[in-house]
Protein 1
Amino acid sequence: MSEIERAPRHVLIVGASSGIGLALAQKLSQAAHVSAMARRTDRLAEIAHMGITPVACDVSQLDSIPALVDEVVAVHGKLDALIYCAGKQLIKPMRITKIDEIEEIVRVNLTAAVVFAKLFASAKIANSNAAFCAISSIAGHRPEPAIIPYSVSKAGLDALVKGLARECGPKRAFAIAPGWLDTEMTQSYPQIYNAGFQEELARKSPAGLANIDSVVDMVEYLLSPKASHITGMSIAVDGGASL
Amino acid sequence: MNSAEFLAKVADVLEYEGSLSRGQSLEDIEVWDSLGILSVVDLLEEIGADVDIEQLSNLVTTDDLIAIAGSAVSE
Ligand SMILES: NC(=O)c1ccc[n+]([C@@H]2O[C@H](COP(=O)([O-])OP(=O)(O)OC[C@H]3O[C@@H](n4cnc5c(N)ncnc54)[C@H](OP(=O)(O)O)[C@@H]3O)[C@@H](O)[C@H]2O)c1
């Protein structure tokens, strides 16, 4: 199959209003049609001029997801890639974590991703050579104290892509597991993600600090025909910090 | 909230067995470890005092903790 045939034409990015998802939407829209979902539609509106279709979606409303996906497929065609970036962090020792906080982390980071994966599995939604990409985390490989529900949700994503790769081939599925990156998610914990933390992280990253571009480059590679035999993997992009 | 109520809340999030008093050395409190500090960060945020984890790590006594809570805690 030629590269042109394999290049994604319609990419759905879930969680595209900031950080990794936004950067991916901007990059991938240069070569494909991007449908971009998130709650902050004002942010999505800012990238609509790039030909990106904004779609208001709160992934925690699980029942609303199928109709929204059906609609983007009806308008822009079946998916060639579905990238699940939506995510929430929670930094708290287990003993003071509330049950509704656990429920929300798992729902946004994992349950909704499984719902999107279920839709992706259908031939009515995604082409036979399509790829599902989940933005996981090194926390799923190596859970850190005080982020256990988050780590559990990310480990779930890693299992999701493995299972999806096995059940849905030749469609592919993979996860990217970034280390700590400078995005709104980490910036929302300034008491923890401070200058000292970042210096220590840089010191512990033998290949240097990873950034949003490192993740975007890896996603682009994995979606490309060059990676057509890579599936089911969760690939760390963290400068070696988790080694 | 007065300082006694604040220290009771700190003891609660730390799951410290017993009560904390003013002037008590944090170093002597076994549960004042990295997870304990994170629990107190969360408590301070809840009561509207924004405090950096490094600032907390450098505190010496419960009086410093009260001082760092600022206007959220009265004497
Ligand atoms: N930054 C890091 O250090 C790091 C490390 C490893 C993995 N990751 C993962 O990378 C992914 C992207 O995070 P980021 O770092 O780029 O942070 P970010 O800028 O905060 O992005 C999070 C995205 O998730 C969306 N989102 C959150 N809750 C949602 C909901 N209920 N419905 C729909 N969308 C929702 C947000 O959109 P709205 O708020 O507009 O809905 C936003 O677009 C996350 O899955 C995160 O766990 C991040």
Protein 2
Amino acid sequence: MANADLAHVRSEEAPTLPAPVSTTGAIGWMRKNLFSSVGNTILTFIGIWLAYSIIAPIIQFAFIDAVWTGDDRQACLATQEGQTVGACWAYVKAYLPQFIYGRYPLEERWRVDVVFVLLVFTMVPLLIPSLPRKGLNAILFLVVFPVVAYFLLTGLVIGDNVILPIVQTAQWGGLLVTLVIAVTGIVASLPLGIALALGRRSQMPIVKLVSIIFIEFWRGVPLITVLFMASVVLPLFLPDGVTFDKLLRVLIGVTLFASAYMAEVVRGGLQAIPKGQYEGAQALGLRFWPMMYLIILPQALKMVIPGIVNTFIGLFKDTTLVLIVGMFDLLGQIQSSFSDPNWSTPTQSYTGYLFATAIFFVFCFGMSRYSIFMERKLHTGHKR
Amino acid sequence: MSDNAVLSDDYTPDRSKMTVSETDVAVEIKNMNKWYGDFHVLRDINLKVMRGERIVICGPSGSGKSTMIRCINRLEEHQKGSIVVDGIELTDDLKKIDEIRREVGMCFQHFNLFPHLTILENCTLAPIWVRKMPKREAEEVAMHYLERVKIPEQALKYPGQLSGGQQQRVAIARSLCMNPKIMLFDEPTSALDPEMIKEVLDVMVGLAESGMTMLCVTHEMGFARKVANRVIFMDQGQIVEQNEPEPFFTNPQHERTKLFLSQILHH
Ligand SMILES: Nc1ncnc2c1ncn2[C@@H]1O[C@H](COP(=O)(O)OP(=O)(O)O)[C@@H](O)[C@H]1O
Ligand SMILES: [Mg+2]
């Protein structure tokens, strides 16, 4: 009878068993992910071949055939017929101070070092969530550090007393300029971008209109144009006698430019916050600013961390564009060193660009990893 | 609130504990009208709620129930008529709106907990920032109410880690931490699985027994029978009928009420 087959009562518990060995461990992982089918196996081998054919020559050039020591170009020239010479690290070593400080006077370079150290000591603790006293830390990094760094880098003269000799920003260069522009741009564009995003969503028509015009203007102009305007055109409009440092003008241009992009990223986050979050906060009696600060922005910003960091990374790399208004960032400084006959060898420029690539990559990849770390850190359980 | 660990289905709360004030008005809505653009969503609403009253509001979807109770704490603005809450008339005056929101708690269909904060932080946020309560004290208050809704052990988890029923109980506790005089509920159990509805209703029954003034939009007729002293039926933006629960359910007067009740009682 069919009924006899349909009815069933379990008489004993089914045992819980360990997973089959072939599905766990390294072998299991490889079988599942790399060799699961013929197509996948072919792709795996193509991938290995591609990785090998790209990475092997780079390793050959950068490490195996590289020249590590030497006093001038002779060290990096082939001594016998057919010898291949790789990267000329001796040249990078000799030029390293220039790459870091530009033409900053030799005897004043300690001031730049102090600024770098202060930057690390005020910024890194702020980025590590488990360290306490974030409020104090933020004040140190956002208020104290910029003031101290400003006087250290530009100089300090009180009356007739020269406490720190003045160093014109035209003498700055290399990594110093890259970091000054990038750090200022990053730190200033985030709050400005948030303000613009809030403005664009404001109920007040004037605030909204001004925000929209601002954002669309800066997004509609290429950064190169902004830099030209800042360095060439703006001085024409300033009254006689008013000088206004070129680096400062570039800084402002880069910051406003980045803040427009930031505003749109943040606005995307704000739009993703459900209306219920606003209502929940309002029903509890929170006013607009506490609601924004405590409820809406933390969630909105968390959601767009990838976009924010994307903008930061773009900004960091865009600092190289200052070369066209006559300022020498890290890349500019490296390029200008190519004209030195003392070090001119066939691999000099490759080495220089490889070095620039490596440095930019370290900074940008660092930001990227940090953003992933923060995303994980701020993840609070599954969304329902 | 009740100390009964579990309320059985046939548990009848002691109505003698739920005293209704004769003179003290909690909410008074007079000739209130509201439009969304050209759409007349609330039409000539008149409602007087005394302190200690438990009002259940029901009606078909889109009849304006949510809009009406959201007008009470100004999540929606009304355009005509007056709303007086706890003696304060609702106007554009932000100070008055703040004052009213401090005294009126609200629970939503989708809980609206803050997902980036722990349960405890959800509960202490408003007392700390709105009532300026010291953090330690706010945490004590929060734990007290979390115990009352029977989930103190979840205090350090995040909302996303809790079940729907638990989240709604947290939402109730979060409102209670502000020590409100009036509680609004907008379909607090509609988004919940059947086995979780009861745990939330139990908490609400306990709240009624503690003498809280409550306005609940809900279709839980069992709840209405147990605790409501008035049931209001809304349709097309109007209050169509109101009565005490027994006569309302057994002997509805208006045709639309009859139709609605027949639809929800025997589907
Ligand atoms: N923000 C809004 N804008 C326009 N119409 C709305 C808005 N909110 C609600 N409505 C309309 O108002 C009516 C009443 O809505 P609501 O109060 O949510 O009904 P209920 O809670 O009784 O289901 C519905 O027809 C709905 O479509
Ligand atoms: Mg509704």
